[in-house]
Structure formats: C-alpha cells, structure tokens
Amino acid sequence: MLLRDAQGQPIAIRREDYAAPAYWIDTVDLTFDLDPAKTRVLNRMQMRRNPEVPVQPLRLDGDELNLARVLVNGQGASFRMEGEQLVIDGLPDAFELEIFTTCCPIKNTKLMGLFVSEDTFFTQCEAEGFRRITYFLDRPDVMAMYTVTLRAAKASYPVLLSNGNLVEQGELPEGRHFAKWVDPFKKPSYLFALVAGKLVAREQRIKARNGKEHLLQVYVRAGDLDKTEHAMNSLINSVLWDETRFGLPLDLDRFMIVATSDFNMGAMENKGLNIFNTKYVLANQATATDADYSNIESVVGHEYFHNWSGDRVTCRDWFQLSLKEGLTVFRDQEFSQDLCADASARAVKRIEDVRVLRTAQFPEDAGPMAHPVRPDSYIEISNFYTVTIYEKGAEVVRMMQTLVGRKGFEKGITLYFERHDGQAVTCDDFAQAIADANPESELARLLPQFKRWYSQAGTPRLAAHGVYDAQNRSYTLSVVQSCPPTPGQPTKEPFVIPLNIGLLDASGRELPMQLEGESDATRGTRTLVLSRAGEQITFVGLDAEPVPSILRGFSAPVILDFEYTDAQLLTLLANDPDPFNRWEAGQRLGLRAALHGIAALATDTTPVLNDAYIDAMRSVLRNPQLDAAFKELVLTLPSETYIAEQLDVVDPQRVHLVREAMRAQLATALFADWQWAYEENHDTGAYSPDPTSSGRRALAGMALNFLCLAARTSGDVVWPGKTLQRFKDAGNMTDRFNALNALVSSGNTLAAQALARFHAIFKDEALVIDKWFSLQAGASDRGGDILPLVKQLMKHPDFSLKNPNRARSVIFSYCSANPGAFHRPDAAGYVFWSERVIELDAINPQVAARLARALDRWSKLAEPYRSAAREAIARVAAKPDLSKDTHEVVTRALAGN
Fold first, then answer.
1. What single DSSP character describes residue 191?
2. What is the 3-state secondary structure (H, E, C) of 706-732?
3. Euclidean distance between CA atoms 633 and 627, whole angstroms
4. Closest to 68 (Cα-Cα) out of 31, 27, 40
C-alpha cells in the first residue's frame, strides 16, 4: 500500500517502525487458470493470529486486482477496501481464508507480478510483485508452504512450471491440462514463481556428494537450445562449488532455470525455479562475447547460491536486503575467483569487481541517493536494489572474511545456517554468527563498531602519511579516517577498517615488516586493523625509506589519500607483488595526468601523458611475465565517470576532451607496440572462454582499437582495412565485436558498412542486436553527433521501448554510460533524458527510476550544465502522476543540491 501525506506525497517507510505481522500464514494452496486476458487465481490459506501482537484486523496487500470472492472457513465474509488493501475484521484465532481474483497479464507492462512475454507466462515477485497476483501478506517475514496447481490450454502452454517438485500432472477437458507443484520448504511470497508456455529444456542429471540424484533443467524457446550449454555447465559448477566450499547441498529433486527476453532485472532466485533475463543464459561463440560468458557464469552462480543465502534463510524486512544480496554477491565473486586456474586470473576478477564498485558505488555514496548498506527508510523498495546494497554489501562480507580468515568464515557460515535455517532474519544475526564462530577474532572484539558499515552511508577516506626516521631505521605511517556527511547523516563515527599493507625498497623488492614492539619480522602482506579516527603504525629495522603498498587487494571499500611521488608509483607499477596495487599505481598515474590536463585547460593537441608514463605502459605491454588480461586492465585509462568523481566541479566536455587526448597519445606513442601486441595475441586457436584465451582476445581487441585510433590522425588506411577484414573473418563474437568496436569508436568511415553487415547477419538474434544498438549509442561523441543518432536508433524497426533490454541498449547507453555525448552545452541531452524518463514511467516505473539516476550527480556540474540539468530534473518531478519509483529518485536529487 502506498502511503501518502495530506499533500498527496508518498510517505517513507522506516526501519525503526518494523512490527511483526499480526497473522501468520502456514500453508498456501494456489490454483491458476491461465489466460492472457483474464487469469483466474484461487488462493486458499491456512492462517492464524500471531499471539505476540495485539488483536487487530487482517490487512492483505493487493495491486490492480479484480476481487470476486472472499470466504472465511468456507463462509462468505464481510470485508472492506482501504486503498489497495483488503481488510477483514473479527477473525478467529485460526482459520482458512479463500480469495478468488482475476488479473490481466497481457497488459502488465510493469513486468511485476504475472505477465506475458512472447506468448509465455512469467512472474516476478521480488520485492512486492506477489500482491499483483493475489491478496496476501506480501512481506518477507511471512513464510509459508506452497502447493500450486496450474491449468492452461495444452497446445498454447505445454510446459507448466512452479516452485519445488512436480507431484502430479494430467489432462483436462477441452484440450486443457494441469500440473501440480509442491515446495517442501517454507518461503516468503517474493520467492513464488510460475512459468507456462512453449519451451524446450536442456537437462542434466547429477549426483551430489551424499549420493542423491538431482535433475537440472535450463528452459528456453525452441531455437535457443544450442545456446544453453554454458549456462548448464555454470549451474553444475555452482552446485559442486557450494557443496565443496561451504557444505551447502542442493535440497530439491530438480532445479530449473527459465530464460525470458522481457525482464526488469538480471535474474531472480525463486526457490527451485530461477527466472533469468536471456542475457544471462544464452551463449554460443557466434553470438556471445567473452564478457557474456563470464557474466553468465557469475549470475547463474549468484542465483543458485541464493538457494541458501536468501531462500532457506531470508530477510526479516526489506531494510535487510543486503543480508541476502551482499552475502550472495560475495559468494558469486568467490565462486568466479575459485574457478580461475591461477593467481593472475583471480587478481583480474578482483580488479574488475573493484572497478565496478569505484565507478558506480562510490558516486552513489557521494550523491543524493546515498544510503547505508542497511537503509533506514524508503518510499519504493525497488529503488534500493543498488550497488550499495549489492557490491558494497559484498565488501562488508569480504572484510568479515579478512578479519576471521577463510576457514573461520566458513565456520561462521555453517553456524549461521544452523541457527537460522527456515527463518527470516537480520544483518545483525549474520554478523553475530560469524563473530560467535570466531570468538578470538578482531571481528568478535570490535563487532558493535564493525556494524557501522551497515548503519553509516558514505565512503570512508583514509588520509595516510609516511615519515622515515633514518637514525632509528623506522618508518611511521599515520592514518586518519573520515567519512563525509550524507543525506540524514551529518556526522560519522570511525569504522573498523582492515588495511592490507606491504613495503618495497626503491628497486621494488619486498621488504620484511617488523612492527615496533615485535621481536621478529615477517614477509608478505600484513593486515592492520584500524578502529580509531587517527592511528600511527611504526615499522622498524629499515635501512632506507620504503615505498608503502597500502590497501593491497582493496581490503576495504575506502578512498586512500597518500601523496605518492611519480617515482614511487612507477616502482609499484613495475614491481608490486600485489596485482591490485600494481594496477592501482597505473590508475593513479593516469588519473594524475588527466586531472593536470583538465586544470591546465588542455586542448586535444596538447600532450597530456609524460614520457615516463608512456614508457611504463610500454613496459607493461611488452612484459612477458604478465598475463594479457592483466595488461589490458592496466592499459585501460580511468573512465570519464571516475575522473569526474575526483573533481569538485565537473565540466564533462573538458573531461571528455582530455581523456580522448590521452587515448590518442597512447595510440600514436605506442603504435609499434600495439602492432606487436595484436600480432602476438590475435590468434587464440579454437574458441574457449577460459581466462587466458579471453585475456588474449581482450588485448588484441584493445590493440586494434588503438591502431584504428592512430589511423585517424595519420590517415593510415592499412589498419582500418585489416580491422574490417578481421570483422568479416572472425570465428567468434568477441573478435568480431572487438573489430567492429575499433572501427566505430575511432569514427572510421568503414564503420558504416561493418554496422550494416553486422545487423544483416544477426537481425534475428535479439541479444546481439542489443549490442549493435548499444555500441552506437555509447560511441565517442565528435561534434555532437551521437544524440541525433540515438534519436534515429529509437525510430529503428527493431527498437521497442517496452523491452527493458532494448531500452537499456539505446537510452541507458547514451544517458548513463556516455557522459561526453550526454552532457551537451545546449542541454539537448537533458531534454531527451527527461522525455524518456516520463515516457518510460508510464510503461515501466522500475526502468524509468533507473534511468532517472543518470543525473544523480548534477550538483557537481559546472555551468551551464548544472542549471540545465536541474531544470530537466524539476520537469520530471513536476509531472503530477509520476510513479513513486521515479518520484523518490528525482525529489531526492533535487534535495541534494
């Protein structure tokens, strides 16, 4: 129910107001007569009062339902409607409640509740979609046993699926049939799912370590079956990994994944019946890139791991969302790293995860939508499926593992599930279990303070400063932590911060570390635990000033301020045994050059990068000891978004100009090196998405990109011609798309024919056409040419605003991922954004609210961008019938100036 104040504005729901439900639901028996225009839902519930709550009416949530009948213990019952809630008074302590409703799935463009996609029924119930199917206590702490009977026309809907185990199926009159499913585990309503349609399945039987057999199924549309092998292998690996690493077995006879092309999210962990966006299921070498393969592995793992961390133990209320999401992101990150064959591949995965955190979550922490990992209030919970809840939440869990050790963390996970299996619990319960399993750990000692990571928003900053004392052969590192104000939280208390550190000498050799007061020195990385606002750490036994390698492995989600000299950063880049800090040294050097270029009012012909940086990049590129994937990461410049976050006032066009100048300089200065890198890496043999082969393809693709960029300046036609031929001859999508990207991003005239050929080849492959749209909308802007192109793309016959993937591929690629093109001096980008947010809001509020986030950081912009952006946000906010999803985002944005 959407609560509104006297002025009609939505009222926030607050964590401090949580109250246990007045009623419990023990069993739910649902019968569906499926019809796209009018689906009938019979809902029989065995209910009882919660004796710990004062007697009160039963209030059931509903949304856009047609109510036909309400029976209590088989008899007609009086009821009333209060807004969208069904209210029943005078109920006995225990009773059966029967509710009969109808809904219209074919008109459900919100894609929440029961909807139809390409003649197939799907559901999406998290967070509050079940109330769009039937009246219910639609909250995660109400867990019940479900029996579901599906009835439909057999010719149109031959496959009928729901949660749990299939117990009965058969024929019905008039060409109809039925299937009955029973879920043997209690679950909240948000984990309910059904699917009905014409689908085919890849099947695999596996035997668990306990000897029990399970059936794994991946359902897709006919014609897509050849693209499901990788998803199935990822599922098998997930089952085996969770059982091996954490002792958590698959608990159902069968486990199903179903793919749909119309989906607001990436995937959904409904118990035993995961529903996925096709983007995270379908892959073969002709249609999917290496990145797609990696994402499928990660998302399949993530949703499967929810079977325990989310399904068997769920969250008490939606404020505890990170309980399941932060933990499960951590688990899928660990899964992907554990599947890597060597340390370098693990490091690459870690760097990729941190890059997402720093380019997406750090700005969120600094913007108007900043919120703690465990939020204190919300108007629309869908707005809080954020990088803070997910990725920062995963970093909080990772810090726990750092503080208790890998084995200690596994003990804590075991205790957590022993204590809370079948319950709806809180972030506090999880942290307590990890600490209780490791009573001698720093986590247990500092637990109340550590939990500030759940309650305080914002990104902590560590200001570090080192002083070498030659006389005493000591080096003292002073660290001061702070955290800026965020909405509703003007002051912050110190966090518990695990700080991984190493010391190198001037030549790059790792030094033994001995803290003052210790009798022996140790080699390798040390973990220091910071808990005070300011601390000093002194290392002794040092014959010369060391180069500190601070925050190794990104041991905490913080911003490190340390005044490294260029020489120190070059030492770390060349020698640090910690791959993350080696990469980070290159990022700091690149960022330093960019900020200097922006401050110096650089033009596109002014060299931004100095010779030392160019030489260092050449050394990385030519280094035979480094993996290609790691080289590609180091040679990738900081993004425009990340550069902008380091500035107090942002001129997006100047940021774009300087970064493009840096790219052009790297292209020309390393031209011979890029040729060498391409020749060394372009042939990877028979296609395999393994980390080594993927890394070589990535580096070859980067080389082509820079070679085409250099050709733009030199007028060379050889490399663009080779790139077009590479595009035509490629034996896999990664190589083909890398070549296409090189032509498009360099603005080469050959791009047009390549784009036309690409569309002709893949016109029937929706996910590939998404790439085609996205590449063009996200291309580097030259003279304001991208916005007119985006408007043309929206008129393309393959474009549909109602399909979230397609909307994201064009509109989001432009507004959210192409700052140089979006932030136009004439404000046309902002006008386009406001029109699309309003247009999408009427169709799918969740997607609209995500798009609305593109201007979160408007208040950092320089004029004239700032005023124009504010005007665009205000235009959206002024729309009278705006959804609560979008309303919350734009009103918070306006309040954050």
1. G
2. HHHHHHHHHCCCHHHHHHHHHHHHCCC
3. 10
4. 40
What distance in Å separates the CA atoms of residue 829 and residue 807, rounded to the nearest whole number?
16
pLDDT of 2 above 60: no
pLDDT in tens, 748-801: 999 999 999 999 999 999 999 999 999 999 999 999 999 999 999 999 999 999
Amino acid at 382: S
> Which two three-digit tokens encode residue 270?
């409904």
The catalytic residue positions are: 303
Task: Write the CB contacts of 6 (distance below 8 Å, at least 6 apart in sequence).
Answer: none
Nearest in space to 426 (alpha carbons), one of 461, 399, 451: 451
Secondary structure (3-state) at 205: strand
- Residue 245, Cα to own-chain centre: how many angstroms? 23
Q: How far is CA 400 from the centre of its chain?
A: 21
Give the tokens for residue 645. 């976050």
**Amino acid sitting at position 742:** A
Note whether 139 and 320 are within 8 A (CB): no
733: CB partners within 8 A, 6+ apart? 285, 286, 287, 288, 289, 292, 768
Residue of 300, 294, 322, 319 lying closest to 310 (CA atoms): 322
Q: How far apart are CA 467 and CA 473, in angstroms?
A: 11
Of 590, 595, 571, nearest to 581 by C-alpha is 571
pLDDT tens for 852-897 read 999 999 999 999 999 999 999 999 999 999 999 999 999 999 998 6
Classified as helix, coil or strand, 428 is: helix
Instruction: Return d(Cα 814, Cα 786) in angstroms, integer.
Output: 8
User: What is 519-588 written as a DSSP string?
Assistant: SS-B-S-EEEEE-SSEEEEEEE--SS--EEEESGGG-SS-EEEE---HHHHHHHHHH-SSHHHHHHHHHH
Give this prediction's pTM.
0.98
Beginning with the edge strand found earlier in the chain, give each strand of the sheet holding 497-504 in spatial order: 526-530, 497-504, 547-550
Which is it for the CA torsion 704, 705, 711, 717, positive or negative? positive
